[in-house]
Design goal:
48% helix; 14% strand
């Protein structure tokens, strides 16, 4: 929804849009504040659940990669520092990323809280995030851990095949094409994404376990981790999420 500050005249916004935004805000005002972190390996279903959680609890979705790109594009002081690091091929420092999260949290859309995805990846990042939130008098409420066995993930991901020109996706086990390796509609060959091979997945999973499992332990000690059965169908995972967040 455009604000007056961005050069949009509210008189030009259709009434139905204004009304639905007002209704949304009224509905949101009664929701409890939530600050959530989503943790899980690639393919665990975080991307499916986060928009549902975002809408249900009126939270903003903070994906650190997108935020960094936005800060760089907007040439904010932190964005310029981040660009400098990226141009040198260096990693953007934890302090910078936490600063960018700090800035993003001040937006009206983050009034009720946020979903953090892709951060923190290390215990040091988690500590820095906690320090920053503490200064604002808030804390992380829940860490949703999308727990899933590596073998299930491997089957889920390495079975994915795509029809490149339409984006249609198939799965050798769960949604196979009528003829193996062939798109149902055009009869053209299907391809597998480079990231979807067993070898790539194995190295991504190793990195995930090494870096991120200590983060889960860190938050477990604070008693705020909820383990979700991420191997279940999406609707069941959604029901589990709602149960966890309503308690």
């Amino acid at each position: 929804m455009a604000s007056v500050g961005s050069g949009v005249n509210l008189e030009d916004v259709p009434s139905v849009d204004l009304m639905s935004e007002l209704l949304r805000r009224m509905k949101c005002s009664s929701k409890p504040d939530k600050r959530l972190i989503l943790i899980g390996p690639p393919g665990s279903g975080k991307g499916t659940q986060s928009p549902i959680i975002k809408d249900e609890y009126c939270l903003c979705h903070l994906a650190t990669g997108d935020m960094l790109r936005a800060a760089v594009a907007a040439k904010t002081p932190l964005g310029l520092k981040a660009k400098e690091a990226m141009d040198k091929g260096e990693l953007v420092s934890d302090d910078l990323v936490v600063g960018i999260i700090d800035e993003a949290m001040k937006k009206p859309s983050c009034q009720k809280g946020f979903i953090l995805d892709g951060f923190p990846r290390t215990v040091v990042q988690a500590q820095k995030l906690d320090e920053m939130l503490e200064k604002q008098g808030v804390k992380v409420d829940k860490v949703l851990n999308f727990a899933i066995g590596d073998a299930i993930l491997e089957e889920r991901i390495t079975g994915r095949w795509i029809h490149p020109s339409s984006g249609r996706t198939y799965h050798t086990k769960f949604a196979p094409p009528k003829n193996p390796g062939i798109d149902d509609i055009t009869g053209e060959p299907l391809i597998q994404r480079k990231d979807d091979t067993a070898a790539v997945l194995k190295s991504r999973l190793e990195a995930f376990h090494k870096q991120t499992e200590p983060v889960i332990d860190y938050y477990s000690k604070k008693g705020i981790v909820a383990n979700l059965p991420a191997e279940k169908p999406p609707k069941e995972v959604t029901a589990e999420v709602q149960k966890v967040l309503s308690s």
